[in-house]
Amino acid sequence: MPERDAPASRSAPPRTSAPRYASVDALRGLTVAAMLLVNNPGDWGHVYAPLEHAVWNGFTPTDLIFPMFLFIVGVSIALALMPRVERGDDRRALTKTVLVRGARILGLGLLLHLVALWAFNLPHYRVPGVLQRIGLCFAAVGVLALYTRPRTQWIAFGALLVIYGALLAAGGTLDPFVNIASRIDHALLGVHVYQLDPATGRGHDPEGIVSTLGALATTLLGLRAGDWLRRGDRRSLVIAGVVAMAAGLAWSLWQPLNKNLWTPSYVLWSGGIAC
What does pTM read for this prediction? Predict the structure, then answer.
């Protein structure tokens, strides 16, 4: 249930600020705490298995952190933007705000990678990154929230899963460096990716351009979950969570859970848990 601020006094008018949701604050706090724990395990030579990412296919609790962030981005868009749209605020002004904020997040990520290039004397500048992906997903899903109806958003969610799944299938193998997502990213970005295979020169980036299709789907699911939350529709939230987890496990029989590629099965499984 939302927690509304009480008036300062009996004579003061009630505040009109947006309600806060304890569930959203809790999920955000748990995600940040988990991120800090995973990034600071104490001894990199002796890390507990749940605090490490799956090497490639598979799933650990650590593989939930980033999708939780993007899911919360979608929820926050629903809680912040949708009431303003319903109130009749100027959509052009809201669009500008969304795009500028997304560009700032993306730019900050590029700047931090530039600092890392200098500070750690890295051999190459990496273009993709966590903040870059968050900025892109925030901007794209924010615009969808402003100009499309729930049905269109669900169609976009399904289309992203189907199209991305078909693209991965068309590429044949999902093995590291030779899957179609990594091949396209390397063709577009060259050496400016996270990892290069010294034996073949092929590249891979876990926040690459192609796998952002899956990340967009995660953010869209968060958008729809946020709308259910603000309407008090807990039943839909629970049902969607159970269905998404089951669908993710079923899809993983065809295309495995894989955070590096952000596969459709991974979108559904992690998104279901987030719900």
Answer: 0.90
